Task: structure prediction
Amino acid sequence: MSARKLYLVDASIYVFRAWHSMPNEFTDSEGWPTNAVQGFLRFLLDVVEYEKPQNIAIAFDEALDRCFRNEIYDLYKANREPAPEELLRQFAYCRALCEAMGLKVLSDHRYEADDLIGSALHVMRDHGYHGVIVSADKDLSQLLGANDLQWDFARNQRWGLDGVRDKHGVHAHQVADYLALSGDAVDNIPGIPGIGAKTAAQLLNHFASLDELLDRIDEVPFLTMRGAKSVAAKLHEHGHLARLYRQLTVIALDAPLGDTSHHFVRHSPDAEALSELAYQLKLGPITRRRLANVAGVELTS
Result:
């Protein structure tokens, strides 16, 4: 019997990408911009048309500015400007479209999309599912197990557990440690001063984990790497910060998901809701036709 696939879509990254890349010529029936919705919907239709997933969940970041990680480190993502009303409205449209198409939407006010994806995959592995994580986000590579895949849709690149080291320089189980050491500017995680991506990867290629590295700092000066003594001194001084940052970079596997007994199977679309959304969004004839075909409904109005 072939393995069952669970598609887990990191929606927010594709909404943001469309927000920044799509032209501002699209508006809804009230004159608000819909460029992010248009781009996200085209991406989603491509995924569903091509893959025809039976089990799929779309994860959104409901709290764009605060999550449980801010309780650990107040400056987490503090470098991001608050999402403007024009974008928040489009996120609501994107969620509504997914729900009307019969796709399970995951969101939570304290947990991020990564955590929802990780938790869903963690739960569904016990039911024999393998994950297909649709996202380019390097953080999500830490979730990959045997037979799971990560799919960078824009570049049409897919990799599994064995491909993580080629992609990021470390193994999947080391990704959170790697980000804690080298930092992640996107999330405003500083990392250890003076330790960049290359050095972090070299350290984790020698030591199996951050904990092992910090327990054996005295060996670092003797490594055959440039500036080994300086790196050891920085780890002695800032090692406690690496452990703090790892609490931010580890994806939670216990986010609330609600009822999962349906295994995130696609359910019947809501033709009336889709028709209303198509009208509000002033979808063009090609997009309307694609949406109707993918959902298997007739759009009115």
Notes: The chain is about 45% helix and 10% strand. The chain has a mean pLDDT of 95.
